[in-house]
Amino acid sequence: MGLAAIFCVISLLALSISSPTTAQTPPAPFLPPSPAPAPAPAPHFVNLTELLSVAGPFHTFLNYLLQTQVIETFQNQANNTKQGITIFVPKESAFASLKKSDLGNLTQDQLRILFLYHAFPKYYSLSDFKNLSNLNSVSTFAGGQYALNITYTFGLISIGSDWANPKITSSVYSTAPVAVYEIDGVLLPLAIFSSDPPLAPAPAPAPEATKTSDITPTQSAIGAAPKSSESSTSGGSSYIASVPLLNCFVFALSGSLMLTM
Ligand SMILES: *[C@@H]1O[C@H](CO)[C@@H](O)[C@H](O)[C@H]1NC(C)=O
Ligand SMILES: *[C@@H]1O[C@H](CO)[C@@H](O)[C@H](O)[C@H]1NC(C)=O
Ligand SMILES: *[C@@H]1O[C@H](CO)[C@@H](O)[C@H](O)[C@H]1NC(C)=O
Ligand SMILES: *[C@@H]1O[C@H](CO)[C@@H](O)[C@H](O)[C@H]1NC(C)=O
Ligand SMILES: *[C@@H]1O[C@H](CO)[C@@H](O)[C@H](O)[C@H]1NC(C)=O
Q1: Ligand 3 neighbourhood includes 200 CB (under 6 angstroms)
Q2: pLDDT of 17
Q3: 3-state class of 162 per DSSP?
Q4: Per CATH, domain 48-183 is 3.40.50.720
Q5: Ligand 1 pocket, 49 CB below 6 A?
Q6: Which residues are paired to 149 by β-bridges?
Q7: Each residue's pLDDT tens digit, 208-240
Q8: HSE of 18, CA atoms in CB hemisphere, 13 A
Q9: C-alpha of residue 133 to centroid of ligand 4, in Å
Q10: Predicted pLDDT at 100
Q11: Ligand with smallest separation from the Cα of 53
Q12: Pocket test for ligand 3, best of 99, 101, 193, 195 (most atoms within 8 A of CB)
């Protein structure tokens, strides 16, 4: 009969397709190859100004980027290169811990260099920092002599500048070609701050407070009066998540900071 013939042909075809050696495992020719997590669509335009104004608060950093027009250099790199960009964004409290005159006394050129110093002209995921920590130094956007030292220890990533070694406290955005990581200090190169350490001689319980605030968020947030407007790392993540533009957030990476500790 006709149907039987069709079944027969199909069976024969199936047999001829599946090789005898793999007969035990059923072939799945119509499934896409699974080990390909890379998203197919081309990377979309990331508006850095918008990203930095909704994530954060990063107003001080963003204002300096706008004032020095470094934002255009960064945006151009994000838009037009395959290399991409990695930006380290100090929290608001990091600027507050600097002596008032330190940034105020810089020339416009020095300010420009300082903020170019806060980025690598290449995209790095958090896991890439493991490899970078094997290098002596990594050149920033400000040029070869303005380098940073990466230290990766048990999932904690520190960014070494001459006067400060802030650590990455959260991943704000990390989808090639753009990475934005929050750090808990301003990067301070010797070539700009040659005379003396620009950090204010303030007592320094603040960096540890971010750790304890994860455990007792409300208490410590109220306790630290001058910094009460600043959210903790975990608080940051929650309102970042509410921004539709940023739905490519790599929370897993952010989480790995903690998990691998
Ligand atoms: C980027 O975002 C800023 C702030 O929302 C906006 O003023 C600017 O026009 C945007 N730029 C582009 C190219 O969309
Ligand atoms: C970046 O790309 C956006 C969208 O294509 C464009 O509007 C903007 O002018 C570009 N900016 C730079 C600095 O290349
Ligand atoms: C910054 O400039 C002010 C006024 O010109 C000056 O009094 C002060 O000593 C300067 N501070 C530093 C650290 O150079
Ligand atoms: C990191 O280093 C490991 C081992 O040295 C290497 O296999 C891997 O390809 C490197 N990854 C990157 C992104 O360079
Ligand atoms: C990076 O490390 C090298 C070697 O330890 C050191 O000489 C250099 O001063 C460091 N650079 C910075 C910016 O910390």
Answers
A1: no
A2: 45
A3: coil
A4: no
A5: yes
A6: 160
A7: 444 433 433 333 333 333 333 333 333 333 333
A8: 15
A9: 11
A10: 73
A11: 1
A12: 101
